[in-house]
Every structure is written in C-alpha cells, then in structure tokens.
Specification:
Layout: H1 6-9, H2 20-32, H3 37-46, E1 50-60, E2 63-71, E3 76-81, H4 86-92, E4 101-104, H5 112-115, E5 119-122, H6 124-138
Parallel strand pairs: 1-4, 4-5
Antiparallel strand pairs: 1-2, 2-3
Length: about 140
C-alpha cells in the first residue's frame, strides 16, 4: 500500500485525520532516525552461525519486485528490489561476509552462497515436497 492509501485505511484506528503528505513526512522523519540500524543488523546477521534466506514477489507501483530477506531467530533484514536473482540477494549485503550455514528453499540463486564458501541447507519441507512430487510422477499420480 502506498502512502496515499494509508489515510483512507486508517480511519477506524483513530479519529484524527491524516493526509498523505503527513504520512509521507512521518515516514521520512522515522527513516532518518534509523541511521546505522541497517548496517548493525547486517553485521549481526553476517556474524551469525546460521541464517535463513528467502524471497517472495510483490507488486510495487504495478510492477513485479522481489522482497528478499536474511534472518535469524533474533534479527531480520528485508530489502525490496526489482531484481529477482543474485543482484537482489547481493543488495542485502549479508552473504559477502558470511561464512556460516545458509538455510534456503533450493532456489538456484542461493547457490551463490556455496561459491562464497558458505555451507547450504535446504528447507526440509521443500525436500519432502520434492521427494513426494518425484514419487507421484514415478507412480503416474498427479
């Protein structure tokens, strides 16, 4: 949802009307208070023993973009990019300094972590789905 959509959707939250300009100004001020936060989270993730990595598509101004994330049980770094592959992953800037285990869903661009020296572990649920799909195809099932 863009800034312009927020005032109309928040009517039930508070009796105080907010214009799109007010929401935009609040967002800008809030973001300015986060200087150094992204870098601190990136450093904490890069120092972790194990991180999870994932992505999902979403629409931004009517165009497909990709939301990439790197996370532990305590920290999450999310980035939205028009790039789906390694460029989107690289924009998070976690993997270049990471030498632990990357847990992911077997999406091919995550194999870049292996080339950088990281150990890679696929989500076990993904492995089970792949195994069941293969067995189903062998038996002629759907």
């Amino acid at each position: 949802m863009g800034r312009a959509g927020i005032p109309g959707r928040r009517r039930g939250w508070s009796p105080i009307p907010l214009s799109a300009g007010t929401v935009g100004a609040m967002t800008t001020r809030s973001a300015a208070g986060l200087d150094g936060f992204r870098e601190a989270v990136r450093d904490l993730l890069a120092a972790a023993e194990v991180i999870g990595a994932d992505e999902t598509g979403l629409r931004v101004a009517g165009k497909l973009h990709w939301l990439h994330c790197a996370r532990t049980d305590k920290y999450t770094l999310i980035g939205c990019r028009p790039n789906q592959g390694t460029a989107g992953i690289d924009a998070l800037d976690v993997l270049p300094d990471f030498d632990g285990v990357v847990v992911h869903d077997a999406w091919a661009p995550y194999e870049c972590a292996t080339r950088r020296g990281c150990a890679v572990k696929r989500w076990e649920s993904k492995e089970v789905r792949d195994l069941l799909a293969g067995l189903s195809q062998q038996s002629g099932g759907s």
